[in-house]
Design a protein that fits this description.
The structure is a homodimer. By secondary structure, chain A is an alpha/beta fold. Chain A has 2 domains: 217 residues, Rossmann fold (3-Layer(aba) Sandwich); 34 residues, no CATH class. The first copy, chain A, contains 7 helices and 8 strands. In chain A, strands 1, 2, 3, 4, 5 and 6 form a 6-stranded parallel sheet that branches. In chain A, helix 1 runs parallel beside helix 7. The radius of gyration of chain A is 19 Å and the shape is globular. Chains A, B: It holds the Pfam family Flavodoxin_2. Chains A, B: It comes from Naumovozyma castellii (Yeast). Chains A, B: InterPro entries: Flavodoxin_fold, Flavoprotein-like_sf, NAD(P)H_dehydrogenase_qn. Chains A, B: GO terms for molecular function: NAD(P)H dehydrogenase (quinone) activity.
Chain lengths: 254, 254
């Protein structure tokens, strides 16, 4: 598969950066074509602002981001750095987001990549969303390194279950924009990992990647699949498990 | 109360920017002292990187962000822009984060503010966290404008319940760093709001702010309050409502 890895860590010698090398070498040795967007190395501009719309937005006039984003995207007037990333996204069949979990989310520099690259008309093209949209047909996966221990992210852990912590990325960004989302690969206690711990995680990661084409995606419910009352986006009664609340309701049950 | 408003919107004429003016004028007319950090206007540097540690980190050497952050904070060698924001945080009794909900979280520029200003030793000072830490004794509140409709954020809404969507900010950032968190003020369908809709929200917001000193905080469970098994951070059995899962478990029940 044509694979784009969006990578956000300021030091390639980190645990996370070392895992990136494993990811690239495993994918390439399995015959996949790989491109890497290294956000820190590229000095990626993190915030979306009026400089993103140099031709279509009159400097100093009202800036409604979604409107300007749509205008600049559809008229091919986005900035070159954004256009290059969008070309990579269009090329990719699999998109891997690899990052350290900072404050329980992606680093600001990667959040800014999503804000700038997932333009209106491409990353969101309402009313298409949640299983439909500009990135339909692509697969996505997170590779995440967490500083904390695994128990903190377990079902009763104080940080919240890891699947819930990553839900706003997996479901509300990646599935939202049409992608099929594979289960995330997460490592814990990363800052203090020994070489042995790293090698164990690396082996597990290589094994996951070997099977990347057949891994079952997370079974999120498509907005247009009949499970929701439209308009309103309300899940119909009786589809969830008894007592189930919150994010879990939006995953189909077998 | 001494109030710091951290504001992230690229246009002060937006719905969000107009709400900011309401917030400031109401707080000041009630006798509160107000400072505003306007991230876009300040050209805030969004990403944390080695330039954050100009004295204590040798350029090009290994960069472990938490370690460098602790080192630079404790030796008073952070950059001036960060030091100024930390001084405002130390001064404040109430911190309001006001932003548009982009991709179901705060804008990248504000995420970067948290990454850079909540230094190790201040914003997180392990093992103190969740109800203890550098910002103990301060109150925090979100003022959020959402583009989508309210039903999408209801208990069965496809975006997830708004309290869950904001949980990673309220609980895992603000409560984590020691602050007491007030319920968020959220407006919906903001991009297409009429003047009448704005005025209704503005009146509701002013009324909330008038009562700011007596609003009941969200009853998050303190990590050191006896509800968790330490180490491990696991919620003890039987404290949650029957069938309750996920983020909700970490809120005390009456």
């Amino acid at each position: 598969m044509k694979t784009l890895i969006v990578f956000a860590h300021p030091d390639e010698r980190s645990f996370n950066g070392s895992l990136l090398k494993e990811t690239v070498s495993q994918l390439e040795s399995d015959g996949h074509e790989v491109k890497v967007t290294d956000l820190y190395k590229q000095h990626w501009k993190s915030q979306i602002d009026e400089d993103d719309f140099p031709v279509t937005h009159e400097k100093g006039s009202r800036l409604v981001v979604a409107v300007e984003s749509q205008k600049a995207y559809s008229s091919h007037h986005l900035t070159l750095d954004v256009v290059e990333e969008q070309e990579k996204m269009k090329w990719a069949e699999l998109v891997i987001f690899q990052f350290p979990l900072w404050w329980f989310s992606m680093p600001a520099i990667m959040k800014g990549w999503v804000e700038r690259v997932f333009s209106a008309g491409l990353g969101y093209a309402l009313p298409d969303r949640y299983g439909a949209g500009g990135f339909e047909g692509k697969k996505a996966m997170l590779i995440v390194t967490a500083g904390g221990g695994e128990s903190n992210y377990s079902a009763r852990g104080i940080n919240g279950p890891i699947d819930d912590v990553l839900h706003l990325i997996n479901h509300n960004m990646l599935f939202y924009s049409g992608m099929t989302v594979l289960p995330s690969f997460v490592t814990y206690k990363t800052d203090y990992a020994t070489e042995e711990v790293f090698q164990n995680y690396a082996a597990k990661l290589r094994n996951t990647l070997k099977n990347i084409e057949t891994i079952e995606p997370i079974k999120y419910r498509k907005q247009s699949g009949g499970d929701y009352v439209i308009p309103g986006g309300i899940l119909k009664e009786g589809l969830e498990r008894p007592g189930e609340t919150g994010f879990d309701m939006h995953i189909q049950k077998d």
